[in-house]
Write a structure and sequence with these properties.
By secondary structure, the chain is of the alpha/beta class. It folds into 3 domains: about 1-230, Histidine kinase-like ATPase, C-terminal domain (Heat Shock Protein 90), CATH 3.30.565; about 250-370, 3-Layer(aba) Sandwich (Rossmann fold); about 395-620, PPM-type phosphatase domain (Phosphatase 2c, domain 1). It is built from 19 helices and 26 strands. It starts with a strand and ends with a strand.
């Protein structure tokens, strides 16, 4: 599900904030179908909270320019997989019946309409109260339940509402997975360990009081996140219906009374345009001029019967393009077979039953109109993917940019990218590191398609913000890891190689994160450069090793994504590491411009067509 943040006002910083989370952004308008719009405001009025939980909205987020804390992993996952969510300031959540509004939305959006949600609402109320009072307001548990304790509790709440704590947000989200509803509530407080708080066995309160009402309740992030699961039947989705007011139906029958009767039935079910013809020849001419969406066709007619007309139609239109329903008095098995053999879609017997005609016409028109919409949607998606692919390919260095760098450094540079689908997760670029230095970077994100491509755009944005003086390769990997950890979803990570070529020192300093070993050729020798390191975005505070080797005139470096050495052809790998070394040695002895294209040609000879995964090869050669 593509989540879209709908902003009330133009805000570049908020746009960047939501883009880094993987959301799209729209302004003052509802996005298109197949997207999940989230209402974004600095503050919500009560009616806006109710509105953002009603279709087509999937929730709302309160956020301001000065306070842009990241949203929780649970909330992001719930929205991406079709759930609903609210992110509210503490004072907003405290002053409204959020548990009631959210439970009501669940009954209308996700779970069966006849579900008993009494216990669900009660548990959600306790979860929200726990997040507000003990999380964001930092009010300790175990306060006395007498008059003095209640007065002290009220004073602490009032103090919290008048302090900066009121701006801390509470995040509420839900997702229905099969027959289990998962609800998560997260606060922005300091966090506390529930295990250190003694449970009152006589008078349980808070989450202990409601724990038996859910299938299970668990606490994460030192108490900042509570997750509860409930068994619920999913809500039945409404049947897809398409208006027939724009449909055109052609009635072909030599009896005017039959034509008028069928026209009346078609009008009754909402068909917008009805055409009539008295024989097959007139029918063919009408089809040529008007291209109807469906034909009701008699069999026995003068000049040209229905079978012949249908056979001629099928030379130009398929069954799905133009459905034909025969309406005939010949209703024996052989007669019905003849109608289908001529290319008919369906058969109705005369004297026809009005209800049957209405039902069959409705089914075929609905199906045809839905297929038209689907075809248009597929064409639009294809066009958008092609534009996105062009935009992604434009992120890599252009031939003009490569030529400029080659003239400045004397290095011969060649970069090739092949995606396994319209969009991919591979990326390479050249970074300016100084007058006598050149930095090359190649990345490979997990997966392929739109998600991997979007992560490529994220990386390109991060690289555009680097300081003029580039960090060393290992330090740069550490910086990118910190940034990617904030935006990549669980299970997403990147393999990245960074190499810094110093022309004055005639050296290559490199570091890698879960990348296949690059190939270095020098003075006729060929070897692999081991650069072990954890993938980016998977761990906090990882360590990356850095190594420096000679890189002199005559040397050549080949870096590549793992599809080159992991793709299978038949029962074996298309290119093993030892095979790659042999290829590289042979191509290096030829002394040509670069080996990236030559290696790819050898690979394609073994495994032709699109690769099973995104494949990138980059070679840098320093001629003698």
């Amino acid at each position: 599900m593509n989540v879209v943040a709908v902003l009330s006002e133009l805000s570049p910083s908020l746009e960047r904030y939501f883009h880094l989370m993987g959301w799209q952004v729209a302004r003052n308008q509802m996005p298109e179908l197949d997207q999940a719009p989230v209402m974004v405001r600095e503050s919500f009025q009560p009616q806006q909270i109710e509105d953002c939980l009603q279709a087509p909205w999937v929730g709302g987020v309160e956020i301001c320019e000065a306070r842009q804390k990241p949203l929780g992993d649970c909330l992001l996952r719930h929205l991406a997989e079709g759930g609903i969510a609210l992110v509210l300031r503490s004072d907003t959540a405290y002053g409204n019946e959020i548990a009631n509004l959210f439970t009501d939305a669940l009954s209308h959006r996700l779970i069966a309409a006849d579900s008993d949600t009494t216990e669900l609402e009660f548990v959600l109320h306790e979860m929200i109260s726990n997040a507000l009072l003990h999380g964001n307001f930092e009010i300790p548990s175990g306060m006395a339940c007498d008059a003095e304790g209640l007065e002290l509790f009220g004073e602490q709440v009032e103090q919290a509402l008048e302090s900066d704590m009121a701006a801390r947000r509470v995040q509420i989200s839900a997702l229905l997975m099969d027959d289990m509803l998962e609800i998560a509530v997260e606060d922005e407080g300091m966090g506390y360990d529930r295990l250190t708080i003694p449970v009152d066995q006589v008078r349980p309160h808070g989450l202990e009081l409601v724990s038996a009402m859910a299938a299970d309740i668990r606490i994460e992030e030192k108490g900042r996140r509570a997750i509860a699961r409930f068994p619920f039947r999913p809500r039945q989705r409404p049947k897809i219906t398409v208006s027939m007011s724009g449909a055109t139906v052609l009635v072909v029958d030599d009896k005017s009374l039959n034509r008028e009767l069928l026209a009346a039935l078609l009008t009754a079910i909402g068909v917008g345009r009805i055409l009539q013809a008295g024989d097959g020849l007139q029918g063919l001419e009408m089809v040529r001029k008007e291209k109807p969406d469906l034909i009701l066709l008699d069999v026995m007619m003068p000049k040209m019967d229905g079978h012949e007309m249908c056979r001629q139609l099928r030379h130009h239109y398929s069954l799905s393009e133009l459905p034909v329903i025969f309406i005939t008095a010949l209703d024996g098995p052989a007669d019905r077979f003849a109608c289908f053999a001529a290319g008919g879609t369906d058969v109705v017997s005369k004297p026809f039953n009005n209800a049957e005609v209405i039902a069959r016409v409705g089914v075929h028109l609905q199906l045809g109109l839905i297929m038209d919409k689907l075809k248009g949607f597929q064409e639009r998606v294809h066009d958008e993917l092609q534009r996105a692919r062009s935009a992604q390919m434009a992120l890599a260095p252009t031939p003009v940019q490569i030529e400029q760098v080659s003239q400045r450094t004397g290095l011969q540079i060649e970069g090739l990218m092949k995606t396994s689908s319209e969009l991919g997760g591979d990326f390479w670029t050249i970074l300016n590191a100084g007058p006598n230095q050149l930095c090359v970077l190649m990345a490979d994100f997990t997966g392929h398609g739109t998600t991997a491509a979007f992560n490529v755009f994220r990386l390109h944005l991060l690289l555009s913000r680097l300081p003029r003086q580039l960090p060393a390769p290992a330090a740069l990997l550490e910086h990118l890891n910190d940034e990617l950890r904030r935006v990549l979803k669980p299970g997403e990570f990147a393999s990245i190689f960074i190499g810094l070529i110093d022309l004055e020192q005639q050296s290559l300093t490199f570091s890698g994160a879960a990348v296949p070993p690059p190939v270095l050729t020098e003075d006729g020798s060929v070897r692999l450069l081991e650069c072990e390191g954890p993938p980016l975005g998977a761990f906090s505070n990882p360590e990356f090793e850095e190594e420096t080797v000679p890189f002199r005139p005559g040397s050549q470096l080949l870096i590549y994504s793992d599809a080159l050495v992991e793709s299978v052809a038949g029962d074996d790998l298309a290119c093993r590491e030892e095979t790659l070394l042999e290829w590289a040695a042979e191509e290096d002895r030829k002394g040509q411009t670069g080996m990236a294209a030559a290696i790819l040609e050898r690979f394609n000879a073994i495994l032709p067509g699109d690769p099973p995964d995104d494949l990138t090869l980059v070679s840098l050669r320093w001629p003698n």
